[in-house]
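[[Local backbone shapes]]
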Amino acid sequence: MVYSFEYNVKDNVTSVDFGHRESRNGGNTKGRYAVVLPDGRRQIVDYHINNNFGYVADIKYEGGDDASKVDVPLKETDKLYLAA
């Protein structure tokens, strides 16, 4: 199976801002989604899914008010793994 999609939603009146893109070729899927959080930071999740490892996500944050930002470094063991 092969597919790809992408969408983005941005509304300046309500401050809604999010999007998602994904592509798949055979048993391998990869994508990214992002959302602006209430504190102004953007959460970005890059992920891939394959038959050997299941779902693997890399989560990061950008921008926002540094005073309210809490950085918690991710270790390799903190990544999400789900069986396919």
